[in-house]
Amino acid sequence: MNNLPVHQAIAVGASKHPHKGKNVFSYGTAGIRCRADILDPVLYRLGLLVVLRSRAVRATIGVVITASHNPEQDNGAKVVEPMGEMLLQTWEGYATQIANTSDEDLGQCVQSLISELNIDMALPANIFLARDTRPSSFGLAQALIDGIQALKGDYIDYGLLSTPQLHYMVRCQNTQGGYGNPTEHGYYSKLASAFTKVREQQSETDESEYTGELSVDGANGIGALKIQQMCQHLNNQLKISVYNDGTHGQLNDRCGADFVKVQQKPPHGMPTEEAGRKCVSLDGDADRIVYYFVDSDGVFHLLDGDKIATLIAGYIQELLTAANLQLNMGLVQTAYANGSSTQYATDVLKVPVACACTGVKHLHHRAQDFDVGVYFEANGHGTVLFSALATEKINSASQDERLSSDQRQAATTLKYLQDLINETVGDAISDMLVVECILHAKGWTMTDWNAAYTDLPNRQLKVKVKDRRVIQTTNAERCATTPAGLQEAIDGIVSKYNNARSFVRPSGTEDIVRIYAEADTQVAADSLAYEVATKVYHLADGVGDPPAQPSSS
Ligand code: NG1
Ligand code: ZN
């Protein structure tokens, strides 16, 4: 460890991680994300920042090095708050500031943050870090460690972990084990034990067509490794075959949850022809999951985050009713949620639905307004949050002798289900185990589950523009306020289609504008998306080729 004064220690580190000053970095809702080869100085600076954060909150802080579903040449970092949440918004600003600070100004920048935030540098600081399987992640972890050490922070390097596993570790540590043991083994045994206990509460009927057999597309990433480790703790309760396990293909290349969701087709590298075969895809850091199957006519069916969210919300509601527990439950979605899912939740499940801005931190925040808040992005990122009141009521109902045994059993199932859920953040492995428990309880096949409602055909497109910030939105991103005339034009186009909806927003993770469209037929959804994309291209200074006309007939 160094014994240099702060300024000097920072300068020594900075000389090993020089900032070329050519690129502008921004810490957004998904952390910092860009090409891996320019990130070294940024990770060093983040190392400094998380030591300050740890001292400011007097707790362990986490950092995951990953760029999730982005291609292998990209990378990034996300900071994890003490309870496993995403970095506080004001600190996103400090992260952006320090990431863009030159070598010469770095000491001064750190010193100003220390004074401004009144940080006691004599306090201990503790950082948990982990990384995904990208080749660049190892070196970036070293840059982060150099930053941590420059400010005399302590750290535990967990090596390879999924993003949600690291979130879990941080929460376990800061609850002194109350949330579980902060080890990989602790994670698997908590989930495996909860999974077994939930299933013990559920009686399987003779007519059940449920099967615990599934094919997993690991996106050639960390999820493939970790799901295999999870399986070893499940005592053959599920029969999982892992494909795209990283031994052949490249990370996220024509596979993974994002590919399957956006392309609406099966991934490469995994056999999916067997009719009704249950398939899932994880993304590159295993915080997203989507299900799908091919039916006997060879038609592909996607069961995305919306289908998972409504399945979970419906089941929890049944248990709450059966346990006679009065808790206020809500579902949080984004504008990308399929209109049919929103209608199903509202009209059939009678669960109130809230719409939040894109990015899980917004959904997470909104879900905290409910006693039981289920939140999912359509792309498969989501979880369930239980308030302290909900946790307390569920626990006491599970032991309340005055209740009927059926009521107690429903409460007990809920209690174990809560243990199975990773409440810190969306977790593909945990979500998969939750879905499997629910399908098991209902005795459902993929076809049964899929029959809950039919998705409206939809299409997502990207348009490259000179500066995507010219598009500003309101009403949870469903309405564009600039550039002038765009929203009126979208409204005009949408009115020509049946059952249609479309919105545009600048991506937070890519340098593009995203177009979403849904309508009564796929041809209509494709054409609507194309028309809206063309409008964006003209009104927002599109660059490159104009959007291509849809080829569907
Ligand atoms: P952007 O690029 O801001 O649309 C994407 C996803 C988000 C979220 C983030 C972080 C869509 C439409 N957008 O954000 O939902 O997952 O990446 O990974 O899927
Ligand atoms: Zn991810």
Automatic annotation (TrEMBL):
It is an enzyme of class 5 (isomerase). Residues 183-290, 304-444 form the Phosphoacetylglucosamine mutase AMG1 domain. Its cofactor is Mg(2+). Substrate binds at E377, A378, N379, R505, P506, S507, G508, T509, R514. The active site is at S68 (phosphoserine intermediate). GO terms for biological process: carbohydrate metabolic process; UDP-N-acetylglucosamine biosynthetic process. Keywords: Acetylation, Carbohydrate metabolism, Isomerase, Magnesium, Metal-binding, Phosphoprotein. Pathway: Nucleotide-sugar biosynthesis; UDP-N-acetyl-alpha-D-glucosamine biosynthesis; N-acetyl-alpha-D-glucosamine 1-phosphate from alpha-D-glucosamine 6-phosphate (route I): step 2/2. One of its GO terms (molecular function) is phosphoacetylglucosamine mutase activity. It catalyses: N-acetyl-alpha-D-glucosamine 1-phosphate = N-acetyl-D-glucosamine 6-phosphate. Residues 55-90, 123-178 form the Alpha-D-phosphohexomutase alpha/beta/alpha domain. Its EC number is 5.4.2.3. Pfam families: AMG1_II, AMG1_III, PGM_PMM_I, PGM_PMM_IV. Mg(2+) binds at S68, D283, D285, D287. Belongs to the phosphohexose mutase family. This is Phosphoacetylglucosamine mutase. It comes from Patiria miniata. The lineage of its organism: Eukaryota, Metazoa, Echinodermata, Eleutherozoa, Asterozoa.
